[in-house]
Specification:
single chain, 272 residues, alpha+beta, Transferase(Phosphotransferase), domain 1, 2 domains, three-stranded antiparallel sheet, 9 helices, Ser/Thr_kinase_AS, Ser-Thr/Tyr_kinase_cat_dom
């Protein structure tokens, strides 16, 4: 496994740097040491030669947006980047990662496919080539410096957009429910390959505040459609938790496997 180093500015103590990280990212061990909550992204914390503190992080191939763009180019922008079962698997991995962060009291605040890292699983191919990748794992990233982050464009929930328009974007606006809304927009990227509301001007938020949402593919698994509509509900209290999302996606995934493994009557007739 390869690693990269993310170094912080010189002259800051570890405790002062900790104020830049989301509360809950570092936890004290019984021995009095600090441990990191997500070992799939950050391998360790260390001090480099010029006395700067740094994270030693696992190196991934790239982000999910990059892979989506490559796959869309392969398909000449015709059709989705992934088969439905692949899309559900990706969404489930992201939901798992977000559930873990929320359990630690960490808000992401900027969830989107470009903040999801991927590790390609390509047999006997070095370096890995995403055009030939059939399976890969996804890891939620870029939460480690989320203090001060205020989200991105139309990935932001309506309540955040209202705060932006009012010029009152306070950190208290960001909640677990805001992350859930962004998750739904991220799922839209995965299912379609498109950017949410790419036909709208960057600051035309009224459409979202009036209830407009991206158009999901049709036909699509009805339970998945229902789940995403709950996730991007205008009322934050109507949005499910990531635990609920994970459980729902696991159920949908199992049903897809059962359907794909069930032989059609025609196939049985031909084999006889």
């Amino acid at each position: 496994m390869e690693f990269v180093v993310k170094a912080f500015k010189k002259g800051y103590s570890l405790r002062s740097l900790e104020t830049q990280w989301p509360h809950g990212m570092l936890q004290s061990t019984p021995e009095g040491h600090l441990s990191l909550v997500n070992s799939s992204i950050i391998f360790a914390g260390t001090v480099v030669e010029d006395d700067r503190f740094a994270f030693v992080m696992y190196k991934y191939w790239g982000d999910l947006r990059k892979l989506i763009d490559i796959k869309m180019e392969q398909r000449s922008n015709q059709g989705p980047p992934f088969q439905e079962w692949q899309a559900i698997s990706i969404m489930l991995q992201i939901a798992n990662g977000m559930e873990q962060l929320h359990r630690k009291g960490i808000l992401h605040k900027d969830l989107k496919t470009s903040n999801v890292l991927i590790k390609l699983d390509v047999k006997k191919r070095n370096p890995p080539d995403p055009r030939h990748a059939s399976e890969f794992s996804c890891v939620v990233a870029d939460y480690e410096c989320s203090v001060g982050v205020m989200g991105t464009g139309f990935w932001r929930a309506p309540e955040v957009l209202v705060a932006v328009m009012d010029g009152n974007l306070d950190p208290s606006v960001f909640t677990e429910e805001v992350d859930v809304y962004s998750f739904a927009m991220t799922c839209y990227e995965i299912l379609t390959g498109c950017i949410p509301f790419e036909d709208l001007h960057d600051s035309y938020y009224d459409a979202v505040l009036n209830g407009r949402r991206p158009e999901l593919p049709h036909p699509m698994n009805s339970r998945l459609t229902e789940l995403l509509c709950r996730c991007w509900h205008s009322n934050p209290l109507e949005r499910p938790s990531f635990e609920e999302i994970r459980i729902a996606l696991e159920t949908i995934q199992r049903s897809c496997i059962v359907i794909s493994e069930t032989p059609s009557p025609n196939a049985s007739h031909r084999s006889s």
